[in-house]
Amino acid sequence: MVKRRNNQLPNNLSQLQNLIKRDTVSYKEEFMLQYEHYKALLKVFWQNPIQINKKLDELVMFIAQVAHCYPDILSGYAQELIDLLNSHNTVLDPSMRMTFCRALILLRNKNLLQATDLLSLFFQLLRCNDKALRDFLQSHIVTDIKNLNSKHKNAQLNTTLQNFMFSMLKDSNPKAAKLSLDIMIELYKKNIWNDTKTVNVISTACFSKVTKVVVTALKFFVSSNVTKEDEEDSDSDDEPNTKEVAMANKVNKKTRKREKQLKKVKQLVQKSKKKKAAAPVYNFSAL
């Protein structure tokens, strides 16, 4: 049994965390004191989620770190954080919001939270006007999906997430729609999601009302369809321009707004291609 130092407990959360991991049973009482404190602070926080509560911030991470030691007691802990983020994600202080997300990732890494529950929440949080958070969530989403498919393709999970991403591409928030597309393209390029459904979902982005989404989707298809051999043998830019126009004609309606959008798309694609000496080759047999 680990020797107690009562003068340093239970206020020293870092030390208590280490002691609990080494001797879960002996320090259950100290943990419960902190857990009850957390629940009291959380109840108050719900009434005013705009505030910054450093003590709650510390306790949220502390509990997430030792959650695997008391799975029965903390069976509803993850859902408490999910509910809070779902209800108040746009008004939370950025640092508090990030803490809640980090705590949920810790629970996910300990297999105390289902991937679909966390990823669906994180996609919703892409709407937040917080670039640091969006970048953080995007990185985690790609990494988690990659890990889930590292040994073998998880078809059922992938289908569920792809359906969710498809709905996010239609989201009224342009940032969320664009990031969802970026994630799908990154997963495709990493050969994690390179099936028919992924390509077809990406293709629907060509019909988006958001210009940046249309540009990203067209650049993906245009650059991916040009092989290295074609680039080496080609002495002019006529071929890629033809492909751009062909794709755009399928996508855009004959309106002034669409004509302006098409012109902007072509300019951006052309600018991008000039920056790259060669583009990676992808297998579009899925199409």
Automatic annotation (TrEMBL):
It holds the Pfam family SDA1_HEAT. Residues 62-287 form the SDA1 N-terminal domain. Residues 230-239 have a biased composition (Acidic residues). Residues 251-277 have a biased composition (Basic residues). It is found in: Nucleus, Nucleolus. One of its GO terms (cellular component) is nucleolus. InterPro entries: ARM-type_fold, Sda1, SDA1_N. GO terms for biological process: protein transport; ribosomal large subunit biogenesis; ribosomal large subunit export from nucleus. Coiled coil: none annotated. Belongs to the SDA1 family. This is Protein SDA1. It comes from Homalodisca liturata.
